[in-house]
Design goal:
By secondary structure, this protein is an alpha+beta fold. The chain is built from two helices and 13 strands, in the order αββββββαβββββββ. 23% of the residues are buried.
């Protein structure tokens, strides 16, 4: 009897912990998921003849850094992204693939595996084109469509991508917002991390960009 009760308690504890660890992210005000026609998402950075340069303001871990974020499209699904300071220092230079990355340069403070992986995760979400066949259902039928692929939620407004919310372990990990979209390209981008003190404000510099 005692052994049976012990096994039951161990099993119950395991089930509770397992189910808790598998909680899925609940998008605000969403009540379900529906199938949809295949939708292309985030086609802002697919042209391999273009290099996009954004003036960047980065607030991270109590430090402020101004400079440029350079996005070069090697192929529609491969991008080389570099963060440069106004003093000409390369803070981070990385090639981002759908399932891996190649680190070219990282300053000492950034050259930590977990930090690099997190920044690459952000850059991949920022630049990667995806296709969705599922959309969220909202009680409010006037809600802008939100498509979901894996751990990402793509919010569309006026036929362009407005936000990408990326979730992990049942919580929103970081948010990318696109604003002032002109000619199928956002002039302003805001990246806000929900776990770490990291905010990036990007403003397109057309003079330095190759468009």
């Amino acid at each position: 009897m005692h052994r049976s009760m012990t096994r039951f308690l161990i099993y119950s504890t395991f089930v509770v912990l397992f189910l808790g660890s598998c909680r899925s992210y609940q998008y605000p005000n969403a009540v379900g998921i529906r199938e949809s026609h295949q939708q292309e998402l985030n086609s802002y950075y697919v042209d391999s003849t273009h290099t996009y340069v954004y003036r960047s303001q980065v607030q991270a871990f109590g430090k402020d850094v101004n400079g440029n974020l350079v996005i070069r499209t090697v192929a529609p699904d491969v991008h080389r992204v570099a963060l440069l300071s106004d003093f000409g220092q390369t803070l981070l230079d990385v090639s981002v693939f759908p399932d891996r990355y190649v680190l070219h340069t990282a300053m000492a403070d950034l050259n930590k595996k977990m930090l690099v992986k997190e920044v690459v995760h952000i850059f991949r979400a920022l630049t990667e084109r995806r296709y969705a066949q599922q959309a969220l259902i909202f009680m409010d039928k006037q809600h802008y469509p939100v498509y979901t692929v894996d751990d990402r939620f793509y919010s569309m407004e006026e036929r362009h991508l407005a936000r990408i919310a990326v979730a992990k372990s049942g919580k929103e990990r970081f948010l990318i917002s696109f604003d002032d979209v002109q000619g199928k390209l956002p002039k302003k981008v805001m990246i806000e991390h929900k776990k770490y003190p990291l905010v990036m404000q990007l403003n397109l510099d057309k003079k330095q960009s190759v468009l």
